[in-house]
Design brief:
Elements (H helix, E strand, L loop, with lengths): L5 E11 L5 E8 L3 H5 L5 H5 L3 H10 E4 L7 H5 L3 H17 L3 E5 L6 E5 L6
Antiparallel strand pairs: 1-2, 2-3, 4-5
Organism: Methanomethylovorans hollandica (strain DSM 15978 / NBRC 107637 / DMS1)
Protein name: Phage tail assembly protein
């Protein structure tokens, strides 16, 4: 088994760029210490600590649809539901090392894993 550092995701709604193109599928990599520490020096984060999420996600999302670059502007223009999804996805892959979610069947009580990409559909 190889160590996974990149994880695919599908946004619940998707990012609509200036041309009206919808971008839903993407890739997020594991965060490094620098990803979490360096944005703390940014004046926008110092003025508004909630902006840390925007910078952090722009650093760790390596692909979103066919966009060549994921900027803070891209993250700022996500729908709120997609931002919440990405925050949860970030926490899950960086804390658990997997994009899978452990769940229990409500009928039989059996525990099993599901891929998070199905949650966005």
């Amino acid at each position: 088994m190889t160590f996974q550092t990149e994880f695919e995701f599908d946004l619940p709604r998707g990012y609509v760029d200036q041309e009206g193109t919808l971008h839903k599928n993407g890739i997020m990599r594991l965060a490094t210490a620098a990803d979490e520490i360096l944005p703390l020096k940014d004046p926008k984060v110092q003025a508004n600590p909630a902006y840390l999420t925007v910078i952090l996600l722009s650093r760790v999302i390596t692909k979103l649809g066919n966009l060549e670059h994921i900027s803070t502007n891209t993250i700022e223009n996500l729908f709120a539901s997609d931002l919440a999804f990405l925050q949860d996805f970030y926490n899950r892959i960086n804390e658990d090392g997997t994009s899978k979610i452990r769940t229990t069947c409500p009928k039989c009580g059996e525990k099993f894993d599901i891929e998070s990409e199905y949650l966005g559909e």
